[in-house]
Amino acid sequence: MKLTTIIGARPQFIKAAAVSRRFAALEGVSEGIVHTGQHYDANMSGVFFDELDIPRPKHNLGIGGGSHGVMTGRQLEAIEAVLLAEKPDWVLVYGDTNSTLAGALAAVKLHIPVAHVEAGLRSFNRRMPEEINRVLTDHAADRLFAPTETAMQNLRNEGLPQERLHLVGDVMYDASLYYRDRARMPRWFEKLGVAPGEFVLATVHRAENTDDLQRLQGIMNGLAEAGRPVVLPLHPRTRERLDRMRIDRQQNLHFVEPAGYLEMVWLEANCHCVATDSGGVQKEAYFFAKPCVTLRDETEWVELVENGWNAIVGADSKAISSAIANAKAPSVRSELYGAGDAAVKIVEALA
Question: pTM above 0.70?
């Protein structure tokens, strides 16, 4: 069996690595990874692949930047050329990026079966490009690998056939289990004068927050008023916006450089709680039994809210500071995202 995996961002490489390791252990299975280049990441050097035990891409398309339409169109054209040359039996796509949709569309136009990992997630906010990407990909795919029962029900509600649906758990949980023993403290952490277990780990990168200066100001005010030191690895876009705003960097706000994945795992495992607008970081907080304050108006991971692990606060400064001050992990932690064997189930379903 021959597979082609389409990914376009660092988090997708980490997810795909969990599945790729399982495929690599099988005889008669070959996989070629295509990196569209959607998200340029300077951390994706040779060290990134070596440290995380991730297969290097067979094809680097170098397509990033531009509008959503331009990017998706260019990726679709380039991926089609790769698939015509490779002639795989399956195409795997992950998540909800433009690369995900372009990979799915290129495959179905060539009558190549598509498998979608992280299927069925819904925010029900159709203004989010990611929401459109994930819905269209799900309806194009032949195998839908859902991380949760909520995701499975979303797919059923949309009329997708039961035989396409597979509840497998979350591959990010697989990855967190695999990498937690490799995690390392960032070199700059000791210089902050912050004690492990006492700080808030914050990430802010979504356009809805960084492009709206009023929302960004509300978030920063809420973090500053939280009553705990806040460690904030800054996405370049967020740093540019904060520099433009000339925001007063209060004593408890520690702006640091973007963290590598193993550093983020350490920070997540050693913080008091997480405040984020990232979907992936919301889940990782739960994997490490940390309460999460979500700096958005909705989330795809509704089961975290329902089980008391996640508080949705938007960009309201008072709601943010209050949620952080009262953040406490629930006493019960069930297996909301499976048992850490999602990759095994995905490989079994395909191979």
Answer: yes
